[in-house]
Design brief:
alpha/beta; single chain; TIM Barrel
């Protein structure tokens, strides 16, 4: 099978004979500190998921700087990030919206320029690749609101949402839907979205607020993908077990979340209902685990969650990770299938 066929069979729980598809995430930190090790992993265990290069006829007007360099980076919405560590992204210290009633929300720039991506170039890249191709858009409403307002302020706002904030959320969601719809009409294989929802033990906000404000947005994203015959992937860090049943009900195809933070055994109830798109514990095992620990971790994921699919061999080579452990993740998956 080609990479595209392998990933699709895995997502549809009909991968009876193929290996587990691979996906490696790297931060610039890994390339800066371990360039040869990154190259070796990518060569020996080539990833099956990829995506087209994206060019815009109208470049984002607000974006400036480099998100992974020390200094200041401005994103396409106008949010200012301060970074003190090379190779990882910084934090917003000076949010755009300062008024508690969101009266200054007109300062936010919705990056309509992102809709000007070169469709022909995207389709050509998909035709010329046998990898499973994701799209160059990633809605993240909860996180973008934090960047715009500041995390603590946003949590307070969500307890008693200001009218102007809800009006902005409608505008942001409309933009994200139009963006995903345009990507869904290209030749990519899958769409994606993200929001980090979990703390170490539970959701960051009350689940009822999540269901009221954010779940309907995710329903729309998932429906857009399926309307055009695409699969859809979501990333969310932390302990997200309380929302996984809801995401399954919405029809989400694949979830990248911190399954070791949750506890792999607690996820067995979802076996065969959703694909777990990674990962391997990057809090403890990838930085400090032994090779035997890595083997045990991969085995536990496979034995607990695999059902002719349902697993993608993914992990993140990020700050602090031991390159030998990252390599061993893919070596062990290869040994299993």
């Amino acid at each position: 099978m080609t990479s595209r066929e392998l990933v699709l069979a895995t997502l549809e729980f009909r991968n009876t004979e193929g290996r587990v598809p691979r996906d490696l995430w790297t931060l610039p930190w890994a390339h800066q500190n371990y360039p040869q090790q990154v190259k070796k992993i990518m060569t020996d265990y080539e990833p099956d998921l990829s995506g087209p290069a994206v060019t815009f006829s109208e470049p984002p007007v607000c974006e400036s700087g480099d998100p992974y360099e020390v200094g200041t980076y401005i994103d396409a919405w106008g949010c200012e990030f301060t970074n003190i560590h090379k190779g990882i992204i910084g934090e917003v210290k000076n949010p755009i919206v300062k008024d508690d009633d969101w009266e200054d929300a007109d300062k936010i720039h919705i990056p309509e320029e992102w809709l000007s991506f070169d469709v022909d170039a995207v389709n050509e890249a998909c035709r010329n690749s046998d990898k499973y191709m994701g799209c160059g858009a990633c809605p993240r409403p909860f996180e973008q609101l934090q960047f715009i307002r500041g995390t603590v302020n946003l949590y307070m706002d969500l307890m008693d949402p200001p009218k102007k904030m809800m009006e902005f959320i409608e505008k942001m969601h409309d933009f994200y839907c139009r963006q995903l719809t345009k990507w869904a009409q290209t030749d990519v294989d899958g769409l994606n979205f993200m929001d980090d929802w979990g703390s170490q033990q539970n959701l960051l906000i009350n689940p009822s607020i999540w269901e009221e404000i954010f779940m309907p947005m995710y329903r729309d994203y998932i429906n857009i993908a399926h309307k055009y015959g695409k699969k859809i992937f979501m990333h969310s860090d932390g302990n997200t077990i309380s929302i996984i049943p809801k995401l399954i009900d919405l029809g989400l195809d694949a979830l990248n979340t911190q399954i070791f933070c949750i506890g792999v055994d607690k996820l067995e109830q979802f076996k065969g209902h959703i694909t777990f798109w990674g990962e391997i514990d990057r809090q403890h095992l990838l930085p400090k685990g032994t090779l035997s620990d890595i083997d045990h971790a991969v085995d536990s994921v496979y034995n607990t969650l695999w059902k002719d699919g349902g697993c993608i061999a993914q992990c993140e080579f990020g700050a602090g990770a031991n390159p030998d452990n990252v390599y061993r993740v893919y070596e062990r998956w290869n040994q299993l299938r």
